[in-house]
Structures are given as C-alpha cells and as structure tokens.
Design brief:
Blueprint: H1 2-24, H2 29-35, H3 43-53, H4 55-58, H5 60-74, H6 79-107, H7 112-160, H8 165-175, H9 183-196, H10 201-212, H11 215-227, H12 232-289
C-alpha cells in the first residue's frame, strides 16, 4: 500500500511539472540530436524542477563539471543550454529508477529491498552518465594530442619548402577537409572560416586555442604567434623543438590507450576462464557423485 501511494505521488508530481514545463521549455530538436538524448520529450518537467531548486547555486561542482565538458565538446555559446538538457536527462533517468523502485515491491512481496534497488540505481545511473561525459572530454583531448604532431610536421615541411606560415596552414587544412569530424581539423576549419570572415590571423588562432582547451595546443599556437613573423631558420627550429615534445606526448597517450584496451580485455578473459572451468569441472563432479 505504501509503495502504491508513493508511486502515485511521484506520477502526480511529474504530471503537474509537465503541464507547466512544456509551455515554458519547448523541446529543441537540434539540441537533442547533438546530445543524442533518449528522453528529450520528458525534459520540460525536469527543467522546471532544476529552475525551482536553483541547481547551479546548490550544486556548483556538478554544474562546473557538466558546463566545462559542454564548453569543450560543443562550444561556449551553447554550453548553458546543453548543460541544462543533459542535467534534465540525468533527472529523468533517476526518476524512472525511483518509479521502478516503487513498482518492484508491488510486483513482489512488498519489502523495502525492491525500493532500495531502485534508489541505488537512481544514484548510480546519473553518476555513470557524468563519468561517460568526462571520458568523452578526455578522449577528445587525446585525439588532439595524437593528431597535432603529424599536422605540425606537415607545416614544417611546407615552411621548409618556402611557403609562408599562413599558406602552409591553409594547405594542411585543405588536405584534411575530408577528416572534418576529427576534433583538431574541425577546429582548424572553423579557424580558417573565421579568418576569411574578417578576423585577423592572430585573433582566429587565439580562438582556436581557446576552443581546443588543451595545453599542448596552446603551446603550439603561442610558438607560431611568437615566431611566424620572423620566419627563416629560427622559426623552423622552434617548430622542430615543439614537434619533438608533441611526439613524446603522442607516445604517452598511445601507451595509455594501449593499457586501457588491455584492461578492458581482462574481464572477458576472466569470464571465459570461469565458463571453461565450469564446463570442465561439472562432468568431474557428476562422475564423483555417481
């Protein structure tokens, strides 16, 4: 009886918030497509709750984590909207787990253990989603570090051949337009677009560095901005020194990814081992009992 009342209260609360929220917070289809949201239709009531509880003020650490990730992945202009939609998605999953926790005791013997399972899932699932978001940020940073040394080497070859820095940069970007989904070339293409739209070379390069939000990219842009006007051997030497540093970073990232791939294989191997152990030992035990 208690679980039925609690379930009814949760559903009534959600329906009331939905009636108010759907008028104030219409669902933005482009945002849901970019973020790959599965419960976007149920976002309005959660957005209303977020506004009422002032989650930015009450949970600044969580807000900073999500906001920073959205800024890095999608840009500062849309970070606020994307953060709110992502947080609404988290609350929707937590709400569904609480509903599941109320339904489970009604279908079984009515013990509190069923609700406890739902409550634990309501905490663990949003935490896992936030961790997955931070992993995407780390993955993006690693992709930038892996590709940047190769891009720099191409620039060095073109500058050695007599091209200016701007032309060398343009040629490298033009050659990689087919890889526009890669985070480095995506930001470089946007930088070239801003440059052609009226920004100075320095302004567009600085914006490129801010969007990437990686220390090594900042060092790359700073090195070019400090030396590209000089040209000549000094500039090439500076780029080569930077290239050696970036290649070491790339090796370190490759080692980390290799270790991660190896660790992911441990669990399947353990499971296969136990399955084989059961298959081998079961006939032996049956023969002994016989």
């Amino acid at each position: 009886m208690v679980w039925g009342v609690l379930l009814g209260v949760l559903l009534l609360l959600w329906c009331g918030c939905y009636q108010v929220g759907r008028k104030r917070y219409p669902v933005d289809a482009p945002i849901t497509k970019v973020l790959n949201l599965r419960l976007e239709r149920f976002a309005p009531p959660m957005l209303l709750i977020l506004e009422k509880v002032r989650w930015i003020e009450r949970f600044p650490a969580l807000f900073y984590t999500i906001q920073r990730a959205m800024q890095i992945l999608y840009g500062t202009q849309v970070a606020a909207k994307y953060s709110a939609m992502f947080m609404a998605e988290l609350l929707n999953y937590a709400f569904l787990m609480l509903v599941f926790g109320c339904v489970l005791p009604l279908l079984t013997d009515g013990q509190v253990m069923g609700f406890g399972v739902g409550a634990v899932l309501a905490i663990l699932l949003p935490v896992a989603m936030v961790k997955d978001l931070t992993k995407r940020v780390v993955r993006r940073e690693q992709d930038l570090l892996i590709e940047l040394p190769e891009f720099l080497n191409q620039m060095i070859l073109l500058v050695n051949a007599g091209e200016t820095v701007q032309k060398a940069l343009m040629q490298c970007v033009e050659r990689k337009k087919a890889h526009g989904d890669h985070p480095l070339y995506k930001e470089l293409i946007q930088m070239v677009h801003e440059w052609h739209s009226g920004y100075s070379f320095q302004q567009s390069f600085e914006q490129f560095s801010k969007r990437c939000a990686v220390q090594e990219v900042s060092i790359f842009t700073t090195t070019i901005m400090l030396n590209y006007r000089r040209g000549g051997d000094e500039f090439v030497v500076a780029l080569r020194d930077l290239s050696r540093v970036l290649w070491e970073k790339r090796k370190a990232v490759s080692r980390v990814r290799g270790e991660e791939a190896s660790s992911k294989l441990v669990f399947p191997m353990v499971m296969v081992f136990f399955v084989l152990l059961v298959l081998v030992c079961t006939p032996m035990f049956l023969m002994m009992n016989g």
